[in-house]
Amino acid sequence: MLEPLPEGMGPVTRVFAVVFILGAIAFWIFAFSPWARQIFQAPDQIADEAYVATIEATCAATVAQLDALPSPRSADGPESRANIVENSNVALTAMRMALAELEGGTPEDRDLVSRWLEDWDILISDRMTHVERLRTEGDVRFLNTESDGIFIAERMSGFARVNEFRSCLPPGDL
After folding, report:
1. Contact assessment for residue 109 and residue 51, using Cβ atoms and an 8 Å cutoff
2. Confidence band (pLDDT; 50, 70, 90) for 145?
3. Other CB atoms closer than 10 Å to residue 96's CB: what's the count?
4. Torsion angle, CA of 133/134/135/137, rounded to 10 degrees?
5. For residue 132, which of 82, 74, 174 has the smallest C-alpha distance?
6. Taking the domains of the chain in order of start, what are their residue ranges?
7. How far apart are the first and last CA of the chain?
């Protein structure tokens, strides 16, 4: 049996509260459903899903190569770490070039990917600088370029997550 209504709370208020709660629950169920992605597209979301799949496959092949390399964290010293990172950079550069040559996507998709590849250029350059610093300065911290108050790797990660190509996240090896 229902508790008596508090003073000043009529049946209309109770109905409104129940409708509001049910509406909020329905909203969050929808927001995390696959239908929401089909209806609402993020501004930096690639429209052509076949293009997304091709990008993901290209990155996944590179991740397999990187996984076969030793971890820079397991290196004996800065010179050894520099050699490992340098080998990783070769694989990442090849991946970046392969991504640039992929066909598909709408003109807007290709524009988004082009800007993302520019971020890859910056990240790879930062990694090459890190290799040189490891060789000349010893054990140093990796310095990631910042643009508009956001680290390049963070911006790249956001784009990869929005487009669901998890293999294309910047490597977290440094």
Report:
1. yes
2. very high
3. 17
4. 60
5. 82
6. 1-40, 44-168
7. 62
